[in-house]
Amino acid sequence: MSTHAPQILIVEDENDIRRFVRLTLQAEGHEVHEAATLQRGLIEAGTRRPDLVVLDLGLPDGDGVDLIRDLRQWSAVPVIVLSARSAEASKIEALDAGADDYLVKPFGSGELMARVRAQLRRHRAQTPAGESVLRFGEVEIDLARHQVQRAGEPLRLTPIEYKLLTHLASQPERVVTHAQLLQAVWGPGHREDTHYVRVHMANLRKKIEQHPAMPRHLLTETGIGYRFVP
């Protein structure tokens, strides 16, 4: 049985970086397509339908964040941002727009490929329709019954804790910003209430993690949000 080589689109205007990323990806067996502008990136994404997009934000004909927003109107393809912008505000803007991960330049080939593997794995492992149980570590979430167990014992989660856990667990390996969590769990009007998330996440970790001070599954992305690692 033949295996499908993942197709990855690089949208990057710097030739040296685009070549470095292309060679790194090809060495891992990926099929690579390239674009040097925002408009060409959108065309390539629409015609190639890649399995993943690697995107620079500083493009000659526009901001990569606008490409993400446009892409998210019709596609859920994972997007990894590569950018020299290291400020938290820039990361939050890209992630809130729909990016899945953010890598600051300069970066190494090993870190890039780890992020690529994680996003491809997450995209392939999206919960299939009809599957109602999520498992990680000692924890089992029964989505149909709204029940959570750890090591076979029932866990008593508050409604907020349950919503937080299921929202993160349904998007493994993806960075979810405070604003995205507040919108999903508390609803509109709470975008600035990040302390809500911190308090409830601390309580959730005490129930889910074996060592809450050193979590393995509910990881903090400092100043940005959280990432769930199965």
TrEMBL record:
Keywords: Cytoplasm, DNA-binding, Phosphoprotein, Transcription, Transcription regulation, Two-component regulatory system. It comes from the Bacteria. GO terms for cellular component: cytosol; protein-DNA complex. Residues 131-230 form the OmpR/PhoB-type domain. Residues 131-230 bind DNA. InterPro entries: CheY-like_superfamily (IPR011006), OmpR/PhoB-type_DNA-bd (IPR001867), Sig_transdc_resp-reg_receiver (IPR001789), WalR-like (IPR039420), WH-like_DNA-bd_sf (IPR036388). It is found in: Cytoplasm. Gene3D superfamilies: 3.40.50.2300, 6.10.250.690, Winged helix-like DNA-binding domain superfamily/Winged helix DNA-binding domain. This is Two-component system response regulator KdpE. It comes from Hydrogenophaga borbori. The lineage of its organism: Bacteria, Pseudomonadati, Pseudomonadota, Betaproteobacteria, Burkholderiales.
